[in-house]
Amino acid sequence: MNKKTIITALFALVAMAGHGQVHYRLEGNIGDSTITGKALVRDMYVHSGEIIDTVNIIKGIIEPVEGELSDTTICALIIGNMPEGKVIYLDRYLYPVFLGGGTTVFDGRTMRHPFLKGTTICEDYTLFHKTESEALNKWMMERIRKANGGPMQITTADMGREQTEQIEKTAIDIISRHTSDILGIYLLREGAINYLSPSTWLELFSKVEPWLMTKPTVYNMSSFKSMMEKTVKTSEGTMFVDMESEVDGHTCRLSDYVGKGRYVLADFWQSTCAPCLTQIPMMKSIYQRYNERGLTVLGIAVSEDAEKSRRAIEKHAITYPQLLNTQDQSSDAYGIQAIPYSILFAPDGTILARGLRGEEIEKKLEELFGE
Questions:
Q1: Burial of 104 (0-12, 13-18, 19+ CB in 10 A)
Q2: Which of 41, 113, 261, 293 satisfies CB 3.0 to 4.6 Å to 52 for a cystine?
Q3: What letter does residue 35 receive in the DSSP assignment?
Q4: Could you read off the pLDDT of 202-259 as tens digits, one per residue?
C-alpha cells in the first residue's frame, strides 16, 4: 500500500465581522482532483490552533458545510491524509476565503489567487486580486517586450506608477466600502498596503470602525500606523532625519553626506535581499554618470551586521560610499517597511523624492541634471 505524501493547502478563512452569531456556508472546488480527505478549519490567530470545523474533500470538491460563528475568525484549511504526521504549510496570506453572511464559493481552478463568489466581501476581494494580477501580468509582458530576447531581471521593485495606479484606485474604492467589516482592515494590513500612499493609507485607516481594532486579524496595526506616520513626517519637502551607526569604533552619520551641498541618492539595501542586489548595477551606473556632477550615491545597509554587508560590497565591486550597521534605523526614522528603497536628498538636506523605483530613479536624475 503506497503512502500518500501529505497534501496540505493553507487558506485563510475569514469570518464576516459581526456582533452576534454569523451563519456561514462553504462549498467549491480546490482545483486539484487528486485530493480526497478531511480538511480541518483551524483558527490561525489563536495560538492553540482551535479547530472551527471539519469539511470533506472528494476529488477536489468541497462538500458543503455550514454553521455559526460568533466572531471574525481567520483560519487555516489543512487538506489531506497525514500518515507521517507531517504538515507542509503554504503562505497563509495568499489564499484568503471570507466566510460568513451567506454562501462562500471557492474556485481554485482559475488562477493563482482563487476566485471567491457568493457574498459582497468575497466578490470584492476577488476584484482586488484580479486587478492586481492583470496589472502585474501587463507589466511582466512589457518587461519581456523590452528585453527583446536578451537577459532580463524581473523584480516588482521597479514597477512604476503607471502599473500601480489601477491597483491603487481599486483598493481605495473597495476599502472605502468596507470600513465597517473585516475586508477593509484586512486589505489595509495585507494586500493593498504596497499600493497606497502613506497619507491615503492613514486617511482610510481613520475611517475604520473602532470595534474592528479589537480583532486578532488586525494584530500589529498600531505598528503599521506608526510607520505610515513617520513616512508622512519625512515626505517630500521636509528636512532629512539624521541616522548614525558605529562601525569599528567609529561613529558614522547620514549627516556626514546629506546637507553638505551635494545631491544624495540613498539606497537602502541588505546583502540577502535579491531585489536589492538586482538594483546594484543601476546604482553603480548612476554613480559613474553623476558623481562628478554633484550627486553622491550612498548605500545604507539595514538590519544586518557590517561584515555581511562588506562581503556583498566586495563581491559586487561596489565603490560608492556606504553607511553600515544601521539596523532598524531606516524604519524608525523614515518609516521604510520594505527594501530596496531610495530617497533623494537636495543639497540643503531637503527630501526631494522618496520611494522611486527602477527607471523612475533614472528619469528623476535626468530631469535634475538637464539630460
A1: buried
A2: 41
A3: -
A4: 999 999 988 887 766 666 788 889 889 999 999 999 999 999 998 888 999 999 999 9
* Closest C-alpha among 262, 257, 253 to residue 292: 262
Question: How far is it, in rounded angstroms, from Cα 171 to Cα 340?
Answer: 23
Residue 351, amino acid = I
Three-class SS of residue 290?
A: helix
The phi and psi torsions of 299 (rounded to 5 degrees) equal: -80, 135
- Beta-carbon contacts of 103 under 8 Å, excluding residues fewer than 6 positions away, are 25, 26, 27, 118, 119
Q: Is the pLDDT of residue 321 over 80?
A: yes
Instruction: Name the pTM for this structure.
Output: 0.74
Give the Cα separation of 330 and 184 in Å (integer).
28
Which residue shows C-alpha cell 556583498?
Answer: 312
Model confidence at 358, pLDDT cuts 50, 70, 90, reads confident
